[in-house]
Write a sequence for this structure.
């Protein structure tokens, strides 16, 4: 990581008991930081961590802040609040970025055409189920234009929309919509990296099988339908199981 009194980029990394993954995530940020001529800081936001995540992050030169919320958007916003950089980039702790990610982000922001954006997603390994998952993600991103995974924008623009939309699930799409709408008011586009991508962790698939999300959709169809009509009890329980209580 590049340390400087003049930090330009703050990379925000929410982490819940991520001692197995935090070092490789920071390493990927460090490689990307070495490709830009500006100060870069990595902020690990420890969320209810009971393992060595903070210790390992500090040893890698990252800053560490804590947030105990059971809402990933709130955790990311805690990192943004602590950030010293003018540009915010977010990535989850079990994922990695490709080495020219930060350079491409700066280029797109400095062009004046983009309010911010996301990045394409590529799994770290593939199978038939993961290829199908990948194709569905690509189709969804292409149809909506709301690329997520790695978020990037100027801190002032994140602040202008109130940071990440604080909801328990679906915060990524909601935030992308808010950022895109704000960009339109300023005559700017919501963009997507073209030369770099998010390397998406397959750990949940490794733990629970590559058809995991397809099985969840069928198994929890009733809860998903009820949530669409306002009854979120079963949906919130599913979100806790898959995200907030996963990796205890």
């Amino acid at each position: 990581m590049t340390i400087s009194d003049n930090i330009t980029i703050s990379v925000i990394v929410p982490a819940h008991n991520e001692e197995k993954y935090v070092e490789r995530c920071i390493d990927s940020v460090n490689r990307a930081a070495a490709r830009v001529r500006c100060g870069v800081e990595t902020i690990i936001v420890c969320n209810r961590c009971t393992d060595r995540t903070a210790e390992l992050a500090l040893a890698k030169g990252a800053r560490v802040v804590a947030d105990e919320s059971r809402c990933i958007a709130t955790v990311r916003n805690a990192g943004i609040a602590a950030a010293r950089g003018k540009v915010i980039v977010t990535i989850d702790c079990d994922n990695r970025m490709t080495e020219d990610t930060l350079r491409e982000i700066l280029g797109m922001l400095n062009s004046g055409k983009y309010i911010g954006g996301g990045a394409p997603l590529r799994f770290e390994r593939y199978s038939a189920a993961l290829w199908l998952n990948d194709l569905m993600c690509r189709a969804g991103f292409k149809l909506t234009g709301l690329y997520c995974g790695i978020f990037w924008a100027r801190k002032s623009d994140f602040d202008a929309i109130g940071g990440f939309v604080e909801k328990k699930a679906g915060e990524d799409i909601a935030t992308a919509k808010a950022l895109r709408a704000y960009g339109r008011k300023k005559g700017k586009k919501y963009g997507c990296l073209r030369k770099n991508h998010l390397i998406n962790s397959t750990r949940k698939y490794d733990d629970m099988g590559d058809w995991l999300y397809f099985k969840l959709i069928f198994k929890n169809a009733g809860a998903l339908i009820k949530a669409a009509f306002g009854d979120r009890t079963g949906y919130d329980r599913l979100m806790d199981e898959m995200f907030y209580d996963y990796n205890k």
